[in-house]
Amino acid sequence: MGEGTQPKASETERFERRRQDVIHAASALINELGVKGTTFAELARSVGLNATSITYYFDRKDKLVVAVYEATLDWLEEAAREAAGKATPAERLQAFIAAQVALRRRIRDGESGLITALSEIRTLDEALQAPLLAQYARVVDHVRSFFGEGRDGLKRSLDTARAHVLLEAMFWWPVWSLRYSTRDFDRLEARMVDIFSRGLAGQGCGWQPHALANNDWRSEDEGTDAFLRSATVMINQRGYRGASVNRIAAALNVTKGSFYHHHSAKDDLVFDCFERSYDRLSAVQLAASEIEGDWWTRIASALAELIDLQFRDPMPLLRTTALQALPAGERGSVVVRSNRLANRFAGMLSDGIADGSVRAVDPLVASQLIMPALNAAYEARGWAARQPDPALAVKLYAWTLCAGVFSDPPEVG
Q1: Domain ranges, residue 356
Q2: Which of 112, 127, 149 is the last residue of a domain?
Q3: Residue 24 and residue 144 in one domain
């Protein structure tokens, strides 16, 4: 009987090993090309099979995509669970960030990638995305527990914001880490832990943002802005694939012909959305740089305005989740623009370090923690709407950047 079952066990093991190879290859392709650009033909070439052979492991593309997301969420949930088991909040934070850095180091050394950008989960059918979103909610629960048990009311709201900002920073880490050698990873890990532990504000500098002089970056109600607003909101909610021309046109109660009168192709509209978002972010940065006060006050004022815009403006900033869908040529210019805006924050932080209003942090690292926090604030709109007032919602969300994750603002008690 043992001899009879051995070949079956061996075949099962070989099948599973090959299936994992397909998942790993698909993970890398989705990160590079997005879900739409990842085809069975492209995947087959990367694993040395033909396209027909791929269907032996996954008969439909959506099943493969779900398997890729499940693998990422499995890893992420285990990393969060292990970190949550540490004795103190500081040890939990350290362990979670260390796990992300260690994985990126192993991938650079040749390990097959298991971490896939989760940006297109909402493009899946609801029946497929529901269990994935439920698993992500468990990840958030684990990360929220880093900061203490039995915290409710505003404390729980604050911890939810902390978890959101920390997770988004870890999702952005694989992107900007490419600019560094793995020999720098230990230092980068220490810098990230320091910033999340103690925040950016200097000694005696709290959260007192100023209102900016104008609001030209707030959305308009007429003209081309209507297309940009509708497309931005739909892409943020449904992803690139889910924001079809038909849906955008229907949301505006116009025909597809009217859409194509303004934009020759959907990719052109997405590119225009990025350009408008970055124009608005830049305008806020420049306006904040001109107000009276120290540089932390100026930075806080920019953060407050941008977070509030993401929470409440009819036209939020476009999430970088749409980046994968752009053609490679246009994607490069968008990334360059994003890096310039991050560098401006880094310059503002450097000026704040010089005048003593910002702690002595690595401004380049800090800017790469600011950008995903702002970018992902749109995802926290529902959370923000449940807070007692808009200004408090902004403060709770920004508090991680201001003072770190181990200090509660006075309003929380």
Answers
A1: 224-412
A2: 149
A3: yes
Domain-located, residue 195: no
Domain tally for the chain? 2
Helix-, strand-, coil-residue percentages of the chain, each rounded to 5: 75, 0, 25
Which residues make beta-bridge pairs with 358? 201
Is the same domain home to 43 and 130?
Answer: yes
Tell which of 94, 121, 149 closes a domain.
Answer: 149
Does any domain span residue 89? yes
Task: Please state the pTM of the whole predicted model.
Answer: 0.87
Q: What is the pLDDT along the chain (413 residues), one digit of tens a residue?
A: 445 555 566 668 888 888 888 888 888 887 777 777 788 888 888 887 777 788 888 888 888 889 889 999 999 999 999 999 999 999 999 999 999 999 999 988 887 666 777 777 877 888 988 999 999 999 999 999 999 988 999 999 999 999 999 999 999 998 899 899 999 999 999 999 999 999 999 999 999 999 998 778 887 655 457 777 777 777 777 666 655 666 666 666 666 666 665 666 666 777 777 888 889 999 999 999 999 999 999 999 999 999 999 999 988 888 776 665 566 666 677 778 888 999 999 999 999 999 999 999 999 999 999 999 998 899 999 999 999 999 999 999 999 999 999 999 999 97
Which own/partner contact pairs does 194-198 have at CB distance under 8 Å and 24+ positions apart?
194/361, 195/361, 195/362, 195/365, 195/366, 195/369, 195/404, 196/93, 196/97, 196/166, 196/169, 196/369, 196/400, 196/404, 196/405, 197/90, 197/93, 197/404, 197/405, 197/406, 198/359, 198/403, 198/404, 198/406
**Structural domain includes residue 305:** yes
**Are 141 and 55 within one domain?**
yes
In a domain, 71, yes or no: yes
Tokens 């608005």 label which residue?
A: 280
The pair of three-digit structure tokens given for residue 209, joined into one six-digit string: 């943002």
